[in-house]
Structures are given as structure tokens and as C-alpha cells.
Write a structure and sequence with these properties.
Layout (H helix, E strand, L loop, with lengths): L5 E4 L2 E5 L23 E3 L6 E3 L4 H4 L4 H14 L1 E4 L6 H14 L25 E4 H5 L3 H7 L20 E10 L7 E5 H6 L3 H7 L3 E5 L3 H8 L19 E5 L1 E4 L4 E4 L6 E4 L4 H16 L5 E4 L5 E6 L3 E5 L8 E8 L4 E3 L5 H4 L3
Parallel strand pairs: 4-5
Antiparallel strand pairs: 1-2, 2-18, 3-4, 5-15, 6-17, 7-15, 7-17, 8-14, 8-16, 9-10, 9-13, 11-12
């Protein structure tokens, strides 16, 4: 697997990335405050903001600046929550691609098609149906992980990091809920980076990691669905090998902040060190995610609530503590090939904390 290279791009020292999948913005977005008329609340100091009275359907008709401001808010706060959304799967797709485009995604990036999405899916290739009924059949990441561990924290992941061009933003609307349970947690990759010592930061910034989802081949065969081998939202995302290499530390182009970019779901190996060293480093980083509840936000869903998050700088984990039906629709846009701008700042540095 090729290692990351360092090269100059638009005046920055860049580690990783790909010449065919670079952001179209050359500096972070600045929030103009156009959404200031909507009541909003930061759920924790580090991550998570809830807006009140804001409808995605209305944003589809608004000026570009409002959508850019929402993108900036999502990328800065990690995840944004919107209650009781009257939005269809088609409108979700239209909105997330507009959000991603205005936030500077490469011209080659579109909406992701998950490798396990069935051909001729009722809601279209780009909608992933999140369903407890599917989980009971053992589909996807949860089934694979359940064979390894009974710890709920094993489910922490960032979406589709096994692709050469992974997700920038994702949006989930939950429309079917059990009476209680089924919360989702998000953790801030910015905050995890900030909790590393300076020597550890410098060490990890020189490393890459291998992300691997080739276990999906077995899932596809077991479920009787052919794996999606054609282009999955980017020309770089195609074929049968669901494995790639990304920097361990990456920069989010929308904020300009550094974030840890490994996760339990898909990151298998830190490259350039021994396996024992890789196992130790990954375990330490994963522990920073799972054992620091003050770097997390927990969301209790109500019917038709939506969450929009930035996969470049967060991890998330569903809570399977319910027996009733739980279902929703998720759409994920693709961003840039992950890179590290070695001159970028951490979140706390940028905010003067």
C-alpha cells in the first residue's frame, strides 16, 4: 500500500490527499451569522448544536450563504440536530449535495453508494436504510463487530473511511422509534487530537493508517446481494478492494483544524511501525474516544428528527439497547481525499483556548 507523500498545494504543505480529489476552497469558511435568527443551543462545550425551528426543506430555497453557514457550523461543532423535519429522502439528497458543494467538495465528488446497497433499492442507490430489522438479519458493520466483542463501544466509527474518497457530511432522519432507547453518540476528533501531548501529535502526524472493509464481501454473499463495484460517488471509489490508506491526523478544509482520523470500525493498522506498536497506538487512541465522555454528545431521538454531522472530524456510535423497531434514512456526501496540512491548527489553538 503506498505511503502518503508531501507536496505543495495552493501554498500549503500537504501530506496525503490525491490530485484528483482536492477541495475547491483554499481557506476555511467564515460563518456570516445568517442563521442567527434561529434559536440554537450548544449541547456540550465541545460538540453538538441543536437548532430550533429550522427546516431543511426551507434551506433548499435559501441563498447559498445560509447553507455555507450551516456547513461551517456543522464542521465546527461536529454535529447539528434538527427536530421534527418535514423532508423527503429526495430532498435530503438534494440538500446534502448542496451543502457539500458549497462547503468546497471536489468537483468529482457526489453522493456515496454504499457497497452493500441493493441494486434497484426503493429509495435509490444513495440512500442507506438504517433499520433494526436489517440488523436482526446481521447486516453490515454491526454484525461483523458482534462476532468480535460484546462491548457497545466497539461500534464507534466514521462513515466509509475504507473508501479512497470518504464522506464529508452525512444526514440521518429517524422516522420509526422504540418507546425508549436507540440513542446515538458522537465524539469530537478535534478534541481527541487536542488531548494528545505535543510529542505524540508530532509523531502521529508522520504516520498513515490502513482502513479496511473487505469483510463486506462476506456480508454481501451471505445476504445474497452483489457488492457494488462500479463508481460509488467518486471515480476513485470503485472496484472490489475496500481498503485504503489515510493520514492518522487530517485537516478539515472547512475549519482548517486538525483531527484524529482513525476509528474502531475500519482502521486496522498504523503503517510504518510494528504490529505491536500499531495495536498499542490504536488502542490508546480508541480509549481516548470511548473513555472521555466530555468529548462526546448523546442524542435522544424523537420521530422525524435529523442529525447532520461532519465525518472528517467526528466518530459516532449507535446504541442497541432496544427491542422495538427503529428505522431511518441516511445519505452521505463525499468530500476530498483526506490530507494533513502540517501548518494547520488544532481546534483549541484556533479558538484561543
Amino acid at each position: 500500500m503506498p505511503s502518503a507523500t508531501t507536496h505543495a498545494v495552493v501554498g500549503f504543505n500537504i501530506v496525503g490527499g490525491h490530485p484528483d480529489s482536492r477541495p475547491t476552497i483554499d481557506k476555511p469558511l467564515v460563518n456570516s451569522g445568517s442563521l442567527g435568527n434561529f434559536e440554537q443551543n450548544d449541547i456540550t462545550p465541545v460538540i453538538g448544536t441543536e437548532f430550533y425551528g429550522l427546516q431543511i426543506r426551507d434551506l433548499l430555497q435559501w441563498k447559498d450563504q445560509a447553507v455555507k453557514d450551516l456547513a461551517a457550523t456543522v464542521s465546527q461543532r461536529g454535529v447539528v440536530f434538527l427536530r421534527d423535519q418535514d423532508v423527503t429522502p429526495t430532498e435530503m439528497k438534494d440538500f446534502i449535495i448542496r451543502l457539500s458543494t458549497l462547503a468546497g467538495c471536489p468537483t468529482t465528488s457526489g453522493l456515496h453508494v454504499h457497497p452493500l446497497t441493493e441494486e434497484g433499492s426503493e429509495l435509490g442507490d444513495q440512500i442507506s436504510v438504517i433499520s433494526s430489522e436489517k440488523q436482526k438479519k446481521g447486516g453490515g458493520l454491526t454484525h461483523q463487530l458482534s462476532d468480535v466483542s460484546r462491548f457497545a463501544s466497539t461500534g464507534w466509527h466514521s462513515d466509509i473511511t475504507f473508501e479512497k474518497v470518504p464522506s464529508d457530511y452525512a444526514m440521518l432522519k429517524i422516522h420509526t422509534l422504540p418507546k425508549t432507547g436507540g440513542d446515538t453518540l458522537w465524539a469530537s476528533g478535534y478534541e481527541i487530537y487536542d488531548r494528545l501531548s505535543d510529542p505524540m501529535k508530532r509523531f502521529l502526524e508522520g504516520l498513515t493508517a490502513t482502513h479496511d472493509a473487505n469483510f463486506f464481501h462476506g456480508e454481501a454473499e451471505r445476504l445474497g446481494n452483489p457488492l457494488r463495484k462500479a463508481i460509488r460517488g467518486s471515480p476513485l471509489n470503485q472496484g472490489t478492494d475496500l481498503k485504503t490508506v489515510h493520514p492518522v491526523i487530517r485537516t478539515n478544509p472547512v475549519t482548517g483544524w486538525k483531527s484524529v482520523y482513525v476509528n474502531k470500525g475500519f482502521t486496522k493498522r498504523i503503517n510504518g511501525v510494528s504490529k505491536d506498536e500499531s495495536d498499542m497506538l490504536l488502542a490508546y487512541i480508541f480509549n481516548l474516544v470511548t473513555q472521555n465522555h466530555d468529548a462526546q454528545v448523546r442524542f435522544k431521538w424523537k420521530k422525524n428528527d435529523c442529525a447532520i454531522w461532519d465525518n472528517r472530524s467526528t466518530l459516532h456510535c449507535a446504541t442497541y439497547d432496544y427491542s422495538g423497531a427503529r428505522a431511518g434514512d441516511r445519505v452521505a456526501s463525499l468530500g476530498e481525499a483526506p490530507y494533513l496540512d502540517v501548518d494547520s491548527k488544532s481546534r483549541r489553538e484556533a479558538l484561543g483556548e
